[in-house]
Structure formats: C-alpha cells, structure tokens
Specification:
By secondary structure, the protein is mainly alpha-helical. It contains 5 helices and 3 strands, in the order αααββααβ. The protein has a domain of 80 residues.
Amino acid sequence: MNKLTSLAVATAFTLLSSMSFSSHATEKHIESALIDVCKSALSNKVAKYQKTTKSYNLQNKTVALKVMCNGSDIIDFAQKHGAYKTAARIERSISGHVNIIDVAKIEKINVDFTL
C-alpha cells in the first residue's frame, strides 16, 4: 500500500507541475501576442495590423477596448507615435453605434515593452 501511495503522490506532483508550466507558457504567448499587436499598430500599416490581429484571432473591437500599450490605450498609443492610419482603423471598430460603457468596469490589459 505504501508503494501505491508514493506512486499516486508522484503522479499528482507531475500533473500539477505540468499544469503550472502550461500556464506559464500561455502567459508568455499572450504577452508576445500583445506586444506584436502594439508593434503592428505603431507601423501605421493597416494591412500589417490586420494580419497580426487575424493571426492571433483577435477582433478589432476587443483590441480597441481592452489592450493598452505602455500605459496608454492602443488608439492613443498609435496616435502619440504618429500612426494615424492604424489608430483610425482601430477607432472605427468601436465607433458607428452608441453604447453606454461602464469604463470603470472594463478590465484593460497592459503590456510594457521597449522599442
């Protein structure tokens, strides 16, 4: 019975450690995706921005409402760096219809990176 208990503990430890690793890998993938999206917004090339968001299966509206780059929302970030074409494209995804949005409730995702 002691060997069986030891085997069960070892198996459980292995499973838990592999879950922790996959969570870390997922976080790195998300961070990489956000950095790529921020960089593509800076490029001022709408096609590059759209290709990047499509490659990560992200919708423009979700990016516009939830992604922050270096402490600024992505639209302001692109505008501050002179990327007016991509900023306008992202902004169009949230304009056109009127919604009342509780801004305090929206969780934004921020990523800091160096250029």
